[in-house]
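sry for the spam today, last one i promise. struct tokens for design, 178 residues
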């Protein structure tokens, strides 16, 4: 059987589709991090720190491209997870925290102070959902609804972090990872 015939086979389509759904469901829970018994959102945000460091080392364009790519993929992952588990914003879904924290840390120096303050600020906004964040969380359904409140929290946290970066020396000046 040639690869072309294999690709046109309905059974193959079903296998590929099932593999994609499995990958998206695993991505939604960050490959098991979302199953952490206490504070899975906080644990997922902590687990995102190495990704922040890795993306920071690649430069701002790759960092921004990762954020732009993760938004639709994350929405699809949340949608698939909700279809299989039912309900809205299942507590095991943590890809939204990953994206929110990545947005929080964009265009900042990579210092331990920036990571600590960014982490605390993002978690505070994500948990308390002030302003319109809570409204977005309750009113928008599906995968977009899961992601959008964390994106909003990440944008607000990023704006605050940019003010701290430009107006204070709270974020330090040393680079954590050379």
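last one done:
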């Amino acid at each position: 059987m040639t690869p072309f015939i294999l690709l046109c086979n309905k059974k193959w389509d079903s296998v590929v589709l099932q593999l994609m759904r499995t990958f998206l469901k695993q991505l939604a829970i960050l490959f098991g991090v979302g199953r952490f018994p206490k504070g899975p959102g906080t644990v997922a945000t902590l687990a995102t720190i190495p990704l922040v460091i890795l993306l920071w080392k690649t430069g701002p364009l790759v960092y921004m491209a990762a954020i732009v790519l993760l938004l639709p993929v994350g929405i699809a992952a949340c949608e698939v997870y909700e279809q299989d588990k039912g309900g809205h914003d299942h507590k095991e879904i943590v890809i939204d925290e990953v994206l929110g924290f990545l947005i929080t840390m964009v265009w900042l120096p990579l210092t331990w102070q920036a990571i600590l303050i960014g982490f605390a600020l993002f978690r505070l906004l994500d948990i308390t959902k002030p302003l319109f964040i809570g409204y977005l969380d309750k009113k928008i359904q599906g995968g977009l609804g899961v992601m959008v409140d964390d994106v909003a929290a990440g944008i607000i946290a990023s704006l605050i972090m940019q003010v701290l970066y430009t107006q204070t020396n709270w974020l330090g000046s040393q680079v954590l990872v050379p």
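The radius of gyration is 18 Å. ok im logging off now
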